[in-house]
Amino acid sequence: MDSMIERTEQGSEELTAVLMGAVDAARTAILEFEGGAADRVVGEYLGGALEDPFAVTHRFLATIPGYQGWQWAVVVAAHPGADHATISEVVLVPGPTALLAPQWVPWQDRVQPGDLSPGDLLATPADDPRLVPGYLSTGDDDLDELAAEVGFGKRQVLSQWGRIEAAERWYDGDYGPGAAMARATRKVCRDCAYYLELAGSLGTLFGVCANEMSADGHVVAGEYGCGAHSDTPQPATIGSPQFDPFDDGVLDLTEMPREPEGEAVEAAGEPAEPAAEAEEPGAEAAEPAAETAEPAAETAEPAAETAEPAAETAEPAAETAEPAAEADPEPAAEADPEPTAEAVEPAAEADPEPVVET
User: Which residues contact 255 (CB under 8 A, 6 or more apart)?
Assistant: First the structure.
């Protein structure tokens, strides 16, 4: 028994050596199969792998243009006790770095959401689990009751499985609570005035957005949210109030209206007459000083004081000269200045010597 096991192991080693040594025979088989030059068909030897006790696969790098990364696989076989191997198969197989075409996908599995274009026809599979015949219950009590009252029937209706699948897709989509927009705000759609709930059982979780600045026309989850919520307050006022611009570098030049030359001359000459008339109170005040000798010193100071008011009254008189000239210029011109001159003379004749004696 032991001798038989030893003989089998010895025979397997000899057979494996014959199979692994058939590298040149495998290369020659590739050249015969391809029918081209060796340097343009087969490259370096990559090694061999024992498939079973009687077969080995030898691999060579393929150098065929357009097949970069592909390999030649040559299967050789031999029976126990044989002194050489025979060629069983020569094939070209892709290696780990080979450029391959995408894996083939059936047409019904190839169509993706968004592929439907205007004019395309997309048939519903006969065994689509999302649809059930219209005479069956949809599983939505509110929808079934409404359809019965209105008498509205469809050939096929959405099954409970179809509604659950749609709800999961909407909830996990771009308008669900897990979206980046929803995570960036604390407000939710179910409290928003723009949120229109769906009818039936789906209305407990979903609605349609009516805000044109947000997800307008899309089905959104009630837990979805955005920054355009109807309860979003106005931002607090910051900064300074807005004023109208003012250019400091612009000067407004206005030309004053010119008076006629005749009126300007009359206005310049008329103020002298009222000023002369205003001096009369000063002259009259000087007479009491000449009549009394002893109190003359006491009255000299009041006389000087009264002279100043007389001079002061001359200025208002000059200011009021223009209205007087405009109102009635002729009477002002007829006024006789002689009495004014006579009234001044007594004031000049008054002798101030008694004032010196006291």
Answer: none
Tell me phi and psi for residue 214, to 5 degrees: -125, -130
Where does CATH 3.10.450 sit in the chain?
Answer: 1-94
Contact of 316 with 252, CB cutoff 8 Å:
no
Structure tokens at 346: 């007594």
Give pLDDT tens digits for 21-73. Answer: 999 999 999 998 887 666 678 889 999 999 998 999 999 999 888 888 999 99
Grouping H, G, I as helix, E, B as strand and the rest as coil, residue 32 is helix
The answer to whether 230 and 224 have CB atoms below 8 angstroms apart is no
3-class DSSP state for residue 156? strand
> Do 47 and 59 contact (CB within 8 A), yes or no?
yes
3-state secondary structure 34-73: HCCCHHHCEEEEEEEEEEECCEEEEEEEECCCCCCCEEEE
What's the first-to-final CA gap in the chain, in angstroms?
Answer: 180
Q: Which two tokens stand for residue 162?
A: 């179809």
Closest by alpha carbon to 277, among 320, 215, 214?
A: 320
Other residues' Cβ atoms within 10 Å of the Cβ of residue 348: 8
Query: Which residues fall within 8 angstroms of residue 228, CB to CB, at 6 or more apart?
Result: 194, 211, 213, 214
Q: How far apart are CA 89 and CA 73, in angstroms?
A: 8
Which helix (DSSP H) or strand (DSSP E) does residue 148 occupy? helix 141-150
Report strand pairing: 206-209 vs 219-221.
antiparallel
Q: What is the pTM of this model?
A: 0.38
Q: Is 98 left (phi over 0), alpha (psi -120 to 50) or beta?
A: beta
**In the block, which residue shows the tokens 């669900």?**
176
Residue 305 gets which letter from DSSP?
Answer: H
Q: Dihedrals φ, ψ of 25, to 5°?
A: -65, -35
pLDDT digits over 258-289, tens only?
A: 877 766 556 555 554 544 454 454 444 444 44
- CATH 2.40.160 holds for 1-94: no
Residue 139, C-beta contacts closer than 8 angstroms, at least 6 positions apart: 159, 160, 163
Q: Give phi and psi for 318, each to the nearest 5.
A: -65, -35
Which 8-state DSSP code applies to residue 294?
T
